[in-house]
Amino acid sequence: MGNLEDILSKGSTRGQESKLPYAGALTPQETYTLIDQGEAVFLVDVRSRAELELVGRVPLAKHIEWASYPGMVPNPDFAAQLQTQVDKHNTVIFMCRTGGRSHNAALLAQQLGYSKAYNMLEGFEGEANEFKQRTLINGWKHAGLPWNN
Q: Residue 126 falls within a domain, yes or no?
């Protein structure tokens, strides 16, 4: 998979190519390597508590809801909770179901002064098929990375 600096460099290049306003974008496999081997690397799962309970969770991740179920009501304390749980000098990678909410969380983190904020592409469940079903096309679970109920 490469060393940690190479992975972050690849993620930064991906981010520049996509014109992302934060540090970059990482695949689930790259994210796992970083959080498994990096000392100052944090994965923040921004899915709702309901999603964690119904679909599964990543044991190495911190959890800060971006929005809560039902109704996907925005978490007004997200920024404060992030700042309490993750130092701005650390690398922080955001994950959600498919990559949308985590993109927004990485954007907010960058605005809060997190210069090493990344979005995890594909999310926990990955993309839906043509019938809007989550059939493990890609994402954390499809990659066979550690998770539990």
A: no
Please report which residue ranges of 3-149 form alpha helices under DSSP H. 4-17, 28-37, 49-55, 78-85, 100-111
Condensed to tens digits (0 to 9), the pLDDT of residues 83-113 reads 999 999 999 999 999 889 999 999 999 999 9
Domain that holds residue 66: 4-120
Cis peptide before 59 (omega within 30 of 0): no
Specify the amino acid at residue 47: R
**Cα-flanking dihedrals φ and ψ of residue 84, to 5°?**
-75, -35
Question: Rounded CA gap, 77 and 74, in Å?
Answer: 9
| pLDDT value for 135 | 63
Separation between Cα atoms, residue 13 and residue 147, nearest integer Å = 28
